[in-house]
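Possible race condition, two jobs.
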Amino acid sequence: MEIKSNIKMKFIIFCVLPCLVSAANILVLETTASPSHHIWMKTLLLALAEKNHNITSISADFDVGQSPNLHYLHLDKVYEVLYDETSEDHSQNLDFFAMGEMNPYLAYYNFVSYMAQNVIGCVKSTGYQQLLNYPDDFKFDLIIYDFIAGPVLLNFVEKFGNPPIIAATAFFSSNYASKITGGILTPAFVPYPLVNMDLSSFWGRTNNFLIFLLDYLVREYYIGYKINYHVKNDFATGKDVRDIEKQIKLVFLNKHPALDMIEPLMPNTIQLGGLQIQRNKGLPKDLQEILDNAKNGAILFSLGTNVKSEMLGDDRITEILETFRSLPQYTFIWKFEADSLPVEVPSNVIIRKFVPQSDLLEHPNLKLFISHCGLLSTQEAVWFGVPILGLPVFADQFYNLELSVRNGVAEKGNLGNINRNSFKQLIEKMINDPKYRNNAKTRSNVFRDQKETPLERGVWWTEYVLRHPNMTFMSSPSLNLGLTQRHSWDVVAFITSIFIFSVYVILKICCLSFRTCLRKRSQKSKTE
């Protein structure tokens, strides 16, 4: 009887399971050319692929062979157009240090130029043509797109029968998402993150307001127009991408309140801060031995994926290496991509073109992280409770570091004008003062204390949209309002106008009354 019962149970499971679990075809538009954005997005895509969803991603950055369920179409012309060169290392002509020192408006101009050129690179690419050649009746159950550079290639939503859309980005700012969620701009207390804005003065808040407003108008009337213009031959009868963008169901942000600026969020904004952080996979044997033997502690130095080490120049590299040489009690692990160095490498410095950053940060002997303070690196340092010596270069790196300094887990150095003596003093200060480590551990506990991992949350909400493709209950009616209506600027202008007019009328009446009184007095004095 027991055997028959087991057979029946297995039969029921095999019959019912296919009805409960279904794989989906998901199209991903990774149209923001950035290695860090790709790392974040790839983490989500691999997790979805592990759940048997079939993923097709069109991207300028990609990794082959990581999953049989994850396929890439290459946006091969994007970096070539962005940097106007055809070598493999597309970033070597960029001067990120100069970008970090620009005034806010000039820095913002650079980001606008990036977005505009990014569109051109996308539509020139082989992957774009391949996706255009897909039959119109090909079924995608969901489209995920990185919206930070605008609604690039969003016309494919119409081509494939208007499946539901999720907007996702490795960035943290909800103000970037406000246009597509119906949220409000908050320049009074949230700095524009890409230009290191100071809100401590009236003029700082004024500039912040102008940058926010400029960004909204540029995205709405310039980038949106640019996208429509470049795809009009391929989507002649297609809708405006700005209208398609309003169809989004959810927005995924790389954000967590313990790490980032506090700002209002719409209910369809899902916070997935630290989604890219993976559990320890184990260090390579050589690095494991190096860190195990670093009895006085090891220090990790990395400038991320955009700022290449050779961009530092010989003078900066020399100052950095001489600083490390003067601290022989510590082991330094430096992610450095160049093949040659201007001076001899000290015996306590380990050079690697690639390092498993998360695994290194998790090791108990890793005492300090010297970082450019990119968002992903900052999140990983917080997750593993490691203090940061920040050397920000451009964009949001300055603000990420400012928040870390405010939380007592970081100090700021100056990579633009680095000096071996002051650099050494900063390293010793942070290693020897336990407050940085203690604050980092406290912040780590807050960040980790979640009911599920950010990645699990991202997968669940993605499948939620697959289960409810026609969901509209999270969409705000404010999407149908213009910028002035959404912020009640028209109402404020109306009330202000009424007030000014009323004051004018009252003053006019008072003046007339005063003149009448003067006239009567004058006439009375004449008769007397």
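Job #2 (started ~2 s after job #1):
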Amino acid sequence: MRRPRWAALAAGAGLALSLFGGTAGPAAAADGADTPVSLVSYNVCGGWNGTENPCRSPLADTPQAPDLRAAEWAADAVGRAGLTGTDVIMLQELCKGQYDALLPKLAGYAGYFASRQTYGGCGAWGTDTAIGQAVFFRSATPEQIQGSSVKVTVDDERLAVCAKGPVRGRHTFACSVHLSKSTAAGDMHELRDHISANAGGASVIVAGDFNREPTDLSPALPAGTPVTGPLVEADAIDDEPTAAWVAPDGYTAKLDHAFFSTEDFHTLSATVEDPQLARVKDHALLRALAFPRKPVPGDLTGDGRPDLLAVRKDGALRLYPGRDDGGFGSAQVLATTGFAGAVVSHRGDWTGDGREDVLARIGPELYVYPNLGGGSLGAPVTFPNREGRWTGTAPRAVGDVSGDGRPDLVVQGGTGLWLHRGADPATGPSLPHAALAIGGAEWAYGGDLDVLVPGDTGKAGGEPDGLNRADLWARERTTGKVLQYRSNGASALPATGTELAGDTWPAAQRPLAVSLGDGNRDGLADLWVTTSYDPQTQQGGDLFFRAATTSGWAAPVQVGSGGWGYVESLS
């Protein structure tokens, strides 16, 4: 399959996963997506017709041509299993003829099938007797699917079949697993390594027929090195069996499971159903739901708190993880050089993986640095068809200004302020629309206004407007006033901003000012400023937090001592 250029950025970057035993994940404030991702995992027993357990569909024995049998089976499967409308479908023990018949029945889906073995029973569905696993993505095209597979058993040729594709606007790495009962403890490191090498920062879903009960899973898939997104089971109730190996006892063990990366999903659930597609209840269908985590504006680390990026005068880029009090934890060095003079910002998910990314204008280029999880950054990519066009501008990611649900840029150029609307992040970072002038000459790059990006300001300076659009603040460098400009969608901002009551912070005394959004979790966007540094006395260069209130600004709180005079810019 053709691989989108930008999707390959972080492949092989070494995403570290502990596949099982994860915790509840980031704080509840990071949650908020309204619609859950739905998953079906089902061992369809496509080829087995043995005397002890003849589970293959009775349709295999009807007096029809194999392709007609397969078409009838596909229609039966879609109806009985309720596949239509499911976001991700994973099928195990699927014959190639069944896959070829099923895909046209799933309108709007794209899929990936892989196999390393054949089975005679699959001849009931076509001349190709390959048997394997498949993954289907709803609302996807074949060009968007990047498939791969890895051998995961030592005694036969069974695979974990994986594919990366779009799931509700974010890139997801989904693996359909089928193990043998004799899989030895530790063998599953192959799957863990495959995910680490190929997920590339995408959300991760692993489901299928593990042939192992819950108590066996930890030794089968041992925890790896430091985690960025552990996987946890959607349904941890052990008394819901999914497979029957000894007739006539019925379902006797829970051997099918669905796992989701906790950094990307929350509030997991699962149910078991019997679509009765087979003669014998060999496996039940597992249906799972998981709510995708909604990025918190300004949050790079995934803990639900806005974080601070600092560009030092030596070109180093540092990340300071936010706390609940407007302060920050210890710095993480993202780069030791290369960012001198850069315009850096971070608002919005530009790569479709549900994580906020970093944008940087370096020289004439504007780059997206994908967030791989925990704030670590992948290799940069330039915006298509926009190469070399950013000299003498200050482009900043601001969130969704236009209200179309997609991330946007505002750019201070030589003549004023411009809005560049972003594309659907599932298609990769791009700016497909013509730039719109939304501010006059007073906004020109290098002028008196510092652009601050507080997000949707809500109650700060007025009642919530309910539009979920990112607003702007501007600091007048000379007077120190902070002005609020409510978003006007894809139209020009108000000609005059609303001054936010309280102290003023002229640039001569407060060189740097930044808004990261809500720093103390009270629902109001806040402000951070630095104090000027005197190299003679070596005094100053501190960082202060200014919490917003409904009537102005709270008293300043020092959250950084010294050293901030060596910082060139904050975002």
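The chain has a mean pLDDT of 84.
Logs attached separately.
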